[in-house]
Design brief:
It is a single chain. The protein is built from twelve helices and two strands. With 261 residues, it is an all-alpha fold. The chain has one domain. A two-stranded antiparallel sheet has the order 1-2. Strand 1 and strand 2 form a beta hairpin. The longest helix has 31 residues. The two termini are 32 Å apart.
Amino acid sequence: MSRLIRVWLGMAKISAQSQLLSSASGLLFIFGKLVRFTLYFVFLFSVLSGAGNVGGYSREQIIVFFLVFNIIDILIQILFRGVYVFRPLVASGNYDLDLLKPLPSFFRPLFGWTDILDLVTFVPLVTFFVHYLSVNHMINSPFFPLLFLILVVNSILIGFAFHLFVCSICILTMEIDHLVWVYRDLTGMARFPTDIYSKFVQIVLTFTIPVMILISVPAKAILGLLTPEWMLMSLVVGFCAFFLSLKFWFWSLKKYTSASS
């Protein structure tokens, strides 16, 4: 594991160097991320300024859901950005070389590109999240933060599973971009509590791409609103998604036709 972390850090360093090839491009990139994040907050406060509650949740709780969404979304993007550059590797045949390296076969597809500049928004976001919870006295038990961290790890497993599934589809069909954007659009629905949607939409967001488990469950955990049944189901879904994605990946890898074939 330590060797893989060192390899990932080395690849992240190379990615950061290419992103900061010129000081102007790096500053513009960071500025764009900060503006995008700020506009989200402006939108959120504008929507909630005239509403006492949404779907039974108070304004403060809605903001927590929004913050949790951004924390998990950015974290998954930092870790699994490699899917965005995987298709050219398969199309060019360069992925053949990666299969010869002493690394897991899914390492380059998932971790081959790291947007390290996301840390510019991630670190302040986590800091503000902790501060917001403390100021509004929203943590009623020391058990809730621990449960929240466990469920964030579970969300990372689900993010891993989906991105690995997308890479498997890419090997079989060369299609990847549209599936990633479907994931991005669906996860965007979890900026607000998924309870506000109809029952049918909630079922879709739980049992297709488990957006509800990915975002809403950790948010409910930190607020002390999560039932034991949902916690258990979330962990089961995370484990099953992780296991099945690996099985599908290794099956699809057997169908891979290398450039030399």
